[in-house]
Amino acid sequence: MRSKQSCLSFLLLTLVFVSGLSADWVYFPYEYNQIYKEKYALELELADIRKQHQNELNRLEEEKKELQTQNRNLTEDLELEKRNRAKEQDEYSDRMRDNDMRLRSLEKKGTDKERLLADENRKREEKDRADLEALKKKLEDRERECLQKEQKLRENYESKMDELKERIHNLEEELANLRKLTKEQKRELERLAEQTKEFEEKLAKEITSGQIRLKRFHNKLIINIDDKISFDSGSSELKPAILPAIEKIRDILAAYPENYIVVEGHTDNVPIKTKFRNNWHLSSERALSVLDYMLVNKNLNPKNFSSAGYGEFQPIVPNTSKENKALNRRVDIVVVPRATGTLNTNHE
């Protein structure tokens, strides 16, 4: 009996000791697993893109070899045709010499038939030469098109690789930050998860229509306001269509006074040509327009708010297409729980 009590006492002391040592290391399994699964999914996506890229490269290589084979065959046909033309030319020259002798014997009087034969032979040679040149040019164009496709595919692959590597790097940083969370920070993150759910429910219509996009990180929530319905091109004045969505956002934020709120303005890399000095100026004014309209709600504490303009210098995707530039033109409302404010908040 004493032995059993001693063992139980020893186990209790051990659990207390271990709990004291690892309290700061505990993190939410849900958060950790969610980030880990996303990382794993990205790695699978990366492997799949690599496989698709390799398959496409193999296909283009086969097509290139086939074009080269066709080019060689056409070159051989061209050489054969040249030899045949040379032989015909020799035969024609012999006939011409014979005709010359006949012409001289007939006091240098030519016939219409001989002139027609010469013209027909010349025209046939010109036509054959033009056809061969056209075929050769067609093959060269197809080979050049294949090379361009291959180069474009390689560039797209490298761009996707860089983007995936960046996302994986961010996920790894978030995993590292999750391990550093204190109990207070964990409680704040639980509240942030509740807030995110509330935003998703109350902004479901705006999210479905594309007016609003939500992006949840482990220590913050980003509410992205679509630029297309928020501002006219080159303007910082809010359009009426986006005002109801901003009103819903500010009403939800009023229920969570412990948050820090940063309103960020972003643009694409197209130089500005309006009253604003540059994209820095435009992005700052747009952020201020959203901030001013939010603070109309007197239940929000201005001390918890700030705004910033980043111009074109924090894109979420490369400014390589019209669609990507539209994504980079945005206003982000970044919600950061007070207890996690000291953690890394980079969300690009």
TrEMBL record:
State where composition is biased (Basic and acidic residues). Answer: 80-128
Query: Which segments constitute the OmpA-like domain?
Result: 218-339
PROSITE patterns the record matches = OMPA_2
Ordered alphabetically, the record's keywords are:
Membrane
Offer a single GO CC term for the protein: membrane
Disordered: region residues: 62-128
> Could you tell me which InterPro entries the record lists for this protein?
Bact_OuterMem_StrucFunc, OmpA-like, OmpA-like_sf
Matching entries from SUPFAM superfamilies are given as: OmpA-like
PANTHER family listed in its UniProt record: LIPOPROTEIN YIAD-RELATED, STATOR ELEMENT OF FLAGELLAR MOTOR COMPLEX
Protein name in the entry: Chemotaxis protein MotB family protein
* Organism, as annotated: Leptospira terpstrae serovar Hualin str. LT 11-33 = ATCC 700639
